[in-house]
Specification:
The protein is of the alpha/beta class. It is 34% helix and 14% strand. The protein has 13 helices and ten strands. The radius of gyration is 21 Å and the shape is globular.
Length: 344
């Protein structure tokens, strides 16, 4: 049987498919799985079981209804028996409509939009743990007659990533304890104030056993990270210097990652690294906690207005972003230190 799984979207959302697809592939070894997504996420699937293949597409090449029909015609040549749409947006709805005309069995994710809206509304908020994205993805496969038990540790299995992929960044690192920090996110409601990040770094550098790696992306973030690292030999800026495969390999060797509710939280989770996650406008109850991560390691402020947004993209109702500004460096560093090896 040949299964096509569709998920475009942001890096973090695609990363959350990995534990589910890996588990599915191992539990159904005779199932041929093709993961369809944007090409740049291919490294996430590089170490999958042999019955998984990745197909990357540039969506700019398939614009509009005519473009999607052309993509459908290309995919149809591969004779899939079933389609799992784990994105459920207009583009994927159109694709699965075309496939439905061929009588192919199709299932799609239930994103729980109504319950997420209830979780984020200003009045009468229903603050309850919702299904995780991992569970929602698994439900789509169950609807196709393939129930899956989620069992996953790391994209590298029981091993760590290849050190040759990042050795140029770490070869002069003498410290024994490696800490990653990823203080940025796409939206303002999920970005730690720079002053807090700076204080976290300074507190962690009080112990000369610690070395800090700063993760991010894009010109503006890289400039800010370089400013944070300036004059600190125990701080290395990773952003812009490694490809995704190298970042994953490095993350697998970290003792702990500090990350906002962002893609880096998910990438570190996929390599089995514990994450001290920081939540502002968003909340773990929405179901986006990293794979295998504990809410006990989440740093968040208990406010009546939280969460106000699923993605952190809405303006602050209070106007002061207290959800982020009230988080202290001490709260973060205490959780980090609890995860570090204590040998001298």
């Amino acid at each position: 049987m040949k299964l096509l799984v569709i998920r475009f979207s942001a890096l973090g959302d695609v990363a959350m498919t990995v534990p589910v697809i890996d588990s599915l592939a191992r539990q159904y070894p005779d199932l041929s799985i093709t993961m369809l997504s944007k090409g740049f996420v291919a490294p996430l699937f590089a170490n999958m079981p042999q019955n998984v293949q990745f197909k990357g597409v540039n969506l700019n090449d398939y614009k509009g209804l005519a473009g999607l029909y052309r993509l459908y015609k290309e995919l149809k040549r591969e004779h899939f028996d079933a389609i799992a749409d784990v994105h459920d947006v207009l583009r994927t709805k159109v694709l699965r409509f075309f496939f439905s005309l061929s009588g192919i069995k199709i299932a799609h994710i239930d994103k729980g939009r109504a319950e997420k809206k209830a979780l984020c509304r200003a009045k009468g908020k229903q603050l309850v743990q919702l299904k995780t994205s991992f569970e929602r993805y698994a439900d789509a496969f169950q609807a196709l007659g393939m129930p899956v038990k989620l069992q996953f540790h790391s994209v590298f299995g029981d091993q760590k990533g290849d050190t040759t992929l990042f050795e140029q960044l770490a070869k002069h690192t003498e410290q024994k304890r490696w800490i990653g920090i990823a203080p940025f996110a796409t939206h303002k409601g999920k970005i730690l104030p720079t002053t807090t990040t700076k204080e976290v770094i300074n507190k962690l550098l009080e112990d000369n056993r610690n070395h800090i790696f700063l993760f991010g992306g894009g010109k503006q973030e890289i400039e800010q990270l370089q400013a944070l690292a300036e004059g600190k030999p125990q701080v290395t800026v990773v952003a812009g210097k490694l490809k995704m495969a190298g970042e994953l390999a490095l993350m697998s060797h970290l003792d702990v990652m500090v990350s906002m509710d962002s893609a880096n939280m998910h990438l570190a989770s996929l390599v089995g690294t514990p994450v001290v996650s920081i939540w502002g406008a968003t909340h773990p109850y929405a179901g986006f906690m990293g794979w295998g991560q504990s809410e006990d390691l989440a740093v968040q402020t208990d406010l009546d207005c939280r969460p106000c947004s699923i993605f952190g993209n809405k303006p602050c109702l209070r106007g002061d972003y207290a959800c982020l500004n009230s988080i202290t460096a001490q709260e973060i560093t205490q959780k980090v230190k609890s995860l570090l090896p204590h040998e001298p």
